[in-house]
Amino acid sequence: MSWSPVGSSLIDVLWGFLALCFLLAFCAHKVWSRYEARGLYMLFQDLIRYGKTKQNLKRDEWLRVFDVPKRWFWHFYALSVCWNGLLLLLYLNFIFQHQSRPSWLTGTLEVLTGVPSADGQVPQLSTLLVQLLLWVHSLRRLLECLFVSVFSGGSMHLVQYFFGVGYYIVLGLTVLCSDHMGKGSGPLLSQLHWLHVAGFTLFIAASLLQHQSLVLLARLRTGKSGAVETLAHRVPHGGGFELVSCPHYFAELLIYISLALVFGGLSLTWWLVVLYVLFNQSLAAQLCHDLYISKYESYPRQRKAFIPFVF
């Protein structure tokens, strides 16, 4: 799998555009605070915030019409488990049953990559592993949303909801796009590389960090018996929270980096996905960090927002 020129495919343009949008949103949030009283600024804040960072936002009533519960996050992961599970099954059939992909899928990949399908294309071990790990990640997040996290009355914008739905559909196709443009050869196991092992190891470590962080957040609202005692927001402590305000967001970035390593570190398309996740999670972490600092006078000042010792 090799680097391809930026803009050579629709899928690269899409992820590059999304990364740029969230970078600009992050910069706008940092410098636009002096326009807080203006309607355009409030609309911007309404679109980028969700959950606890949105609850104290002084919005016009008409903006609340577009609110949906933040607890609907589980919809994204349920969709991802089903959709990416389907794509995984189709790829397994391609590998072991030697069945060709459905024409709708082949046509979609050709449009997204600009590369016509080739006869005799060799299955990629990297693609299979990334598909499997992405499905495992989605399943874990679904179970955490349903059985670990304790959601309050927080909301998100309807635009964010539909964006999340589309995101996981495109993400699964992006994995196959990287495969579609790949040039791997030989039997599946002969493609095994040390980067596969490194990526898998990082994936496990980052997943454990994210799970631990979500458990610590949930315990802020539950008693020793596990029953919910409060929906109030409190200052989290322990684990990655001793270094950053949002270790679960940092873990999300590490998970996507781990998948880039599984791809051999050579998929430009996936690095653009990583770039998008970096800017997206940076914005979300900064909003949470700002809230903690403004709300709690005793909040640990040595904590960074997102990346330990950096930001």
Rg, alpha carbons:
21 Å
Mean pLDDT level: 90
**In angstroms, what separates the terminal alpha carbons?**
32 Å
Largest sheet: 2 strands, antiparallel
Q: Roughly how much helix do the residues carry, as a percent range?
A: 55-70%
Instruction: Choose one word for the global shape.
Output: globular
As residue ranges, the low-confidence spans are 1-7
Q: Please work out how many helical segments DSSP would assign.
A: 9
Strands of the widest sheet, in order across it, are: 1-2
Question: What percent of residues are in strands?
Answer: under 5%
Order of helices and strands: HHEHHHEHHHH
Q: Based on DSSP secondary structure assignment, what is the total number of beta strands?
A: 2
Class by alpha and beta content: mainly alpha
Characterization of the model:
The chain has 311 residues and is an all-alpha fold. Helices cover 59% and strands 2% of the residues. It is built from nine helices and two strands. The protein has helices at residues 10-31, 39-48, 73-97, 103-113, 125-147, 158-180, 194-219, 247-262, 268-295; strands at 67-69, 155-157. It has a two-stranded antiparallel ribbon with strand order 1-2. Helix 3 packs antiparallel against helix 5 (125-147). The protein is globular, with a radius of gyration of 21 Å. 34% of the residues are buried.
